[in-house]
Amino acid sequence: MAGSRRKLLVPGVEEYLESVKYEIAQEFGINLGAQTVSRSNGSVGGEITKRLVAQAQSDLTNQNR
């Protein structure tokens, strides 16, 4: 996130997301890199978002109990 003006709310989140990205890519059989097609990269990003939303929903549900 070099040069970004966005403030991170959770310290260390960049390292976590990076590890999740490669974990999902491995699950999908995708080798990330400059030669990877955009569709493959997008599917990994979409899965990251899907999992983060599911985790947030779970956390909110557990907080309301």
TrEMBL record:
| Name this polypeptide is given | Small, acid-soluble spore protein, alpha/beta type
Q: Single GO molecular-function term?
A: double-stranded DNA binding
Report which superkingdom the organism of origin falls in.
Bacteria
GO biological process terms held by the UniProt record: DNA topological change
- The transmembrane segments are none
Among Pfam families, the record links this protein to: SASP
InterPro entries this protein is in?
SASP_alpha/beta-type, SASP_alpha/beta-type_CS, SASP_DNA-binding, SASP_sf_alpha/beta
Protein's job = SASP are bound to spore DNA. They are double-stranded DNA-binding proteins that cause DNA to change to an a-like conformation. They protect the DNA backbone from chemical and enzymatic cleavage and are thus involved in dormant spore's high resistance to UV light.
Instruction: Name the keywords, alphabetized.
Output: DNA-binding
**Keyword Repeat attached:** no
Q: Which family is annotated?
A: Belongs to the alpha/beta-type SASP family.
